User: Fold these one by one.
Assistant:
Number 1:
Amino acid sequence: MASEWIVQGRTLSAEDLAQIRAWRAAHPTWHRTRLARELCARWGWRNGVGQLKDMAARSLLLKLEARGWITLPPRQGPSVNGRRNHRALAPAGAAVGIQASLASLHPLHLRRVAPGTAEAREFGALLQEHHYLGHRNCVGENLQYLVRDRQDRPLACALFGSAAWQCQARDGFIGWSPPARRRHLGLITNNTRFLILRGVRVPHLASHLLGCLTRRLSADWQARYGHPIHLVETFVEPERFAGTSYQAAGWIRVGATTGRGRNGAAPQRPIKEVWLCPLGADFRERLGA
């Protein structure tokens, strides 16, 4: 058996596993949240603004349990993620038919959605109703944006979250080695959802919004998580979309996925085109290539 393993992008040693097992034996009353927080404190696992990354730690612990390496305490209640995934979303309302020029809708308001607010519920409901992939809870570092026009009518939603653990086309474009990818993956984000609401027919709106979002994204990430973003990725299903808006916004098509999913899992998935948007001319240097 190996003495080190990579789980959720983190290198674990036999000593790390022994420590977790020792905590379980010495503190049988600790619940899963307490265990995750102790792990974060031991590893100094915090985001850029000093918050414990306890949700990431809980996810890692679940993966260790799934491999049979540790046994976690029983859940104290229903899964938090399960409640998020199945909670009743606020009604999104009927789609507003908007056929207009882009200039006539200005000024546009690109609002960063705060978790737990009425606007966050609206954001989730709009994605659930209008996006072909729907919407589940967000895990890890992420930013959500809701776009409204001058009359405060919703036009679009955008969600940026964790980058794919590995992607051959992306990693080759950057010039990453596996160790460099492990060290710097958090400096990339994935545009996991981009939605223009049904009924909104505004020429050039999508590419305009992509440009606006990528110009502010790194500063917003810095403010929320204490570190910048240097590259944005997205995966486009060519049978559904041509990627025209990304191309018009200056994104670069660098290849296609292998169909193995975000984290390299075995089940086959639709082949998707890989589009990237560097956020600076020195992005390769900043990503450790």
Note: The chain has two domains: 4-77, 99-286.
Number 2:
Amino acid sequence: MLQTILVIAAASIAAATAMLAVGLFLRDLFTKPEDKTARRRLEFLPEEVEYGSLDRMFVRLIEESGLPLSVAAATLIVVAGGLLGGGIPFVLFDNYLGAALGVIGGMMLPICYISFIRWRRVSIMQKHMPETLQIVADAVRAGHTLDEACGFVAREMSGPLRDEFDQAHRQFQLGHSPVNILDRLARRIPLSEFRIFATAVMVHRKAGGNLALLTERLSHTARDRQEVRGHLMAVTAGSRLSAFGMVVGSMIALSVLAWLEPEYLSIFFTHNLGPTLLTIAATLQIVGVLWVWRVLRVNY
């Protein structure tokens, strides 16, 4: 009786959390940017709020992904995924191990999706950053203000950079502090070229200098880095494809073997050393993937 009550309570909490997460997501998705700007000065929490290391990484992931999600809504989505992932195996199969793995998998799925969106968004911004900085440099050299330069970028560019500079342009018109606007842009555009540009603008406001020349040089640097990045991706394409083929090929081979000869794989689960060998094999696969990823991840 107690177990039934706990199952019903867990299912109710999971359903309520999922509905609340969906409601917050729809609220953030369909709220007009003008309304959000009028309601608060910055879209995300200020930097002086103290976070732990994991909290800081999660907040940074949400900011850099560009999704119309608040931190609270994203947290509820992750929690709802964990509750649903753990509740389904527990309710349907009464499997505690499956419930534990389901909680981990259910929480990781939203994080992996947000990470993929963040990776795709950063890739697009890297592609368009040289042209964006060149537009800003030309506008500043022509005597326009930084506010007007953001408007030019919003009209000329496309993709996530257009959205970010368009919102920065609106914040300039509302009288927000340039330091806060650039700080927000630097947090939502995780590119070293733009962070150098934001720092240069802040220094220029206090000490002066040739901002147009510096921005043009940053544009050339971003273009050179993009060429190096393309060359590196072309040179390492074979290694990345080999690592991907080894991991995916082993999974496909294991699935085919489990379908054709299930008795052969059952030995790994019935023998005393079977689970240990499977754990070692899975661990080595994960270590190999992380090692290849770390070797190919070059900071330049």
Note: Residues 236-296 form one domain.
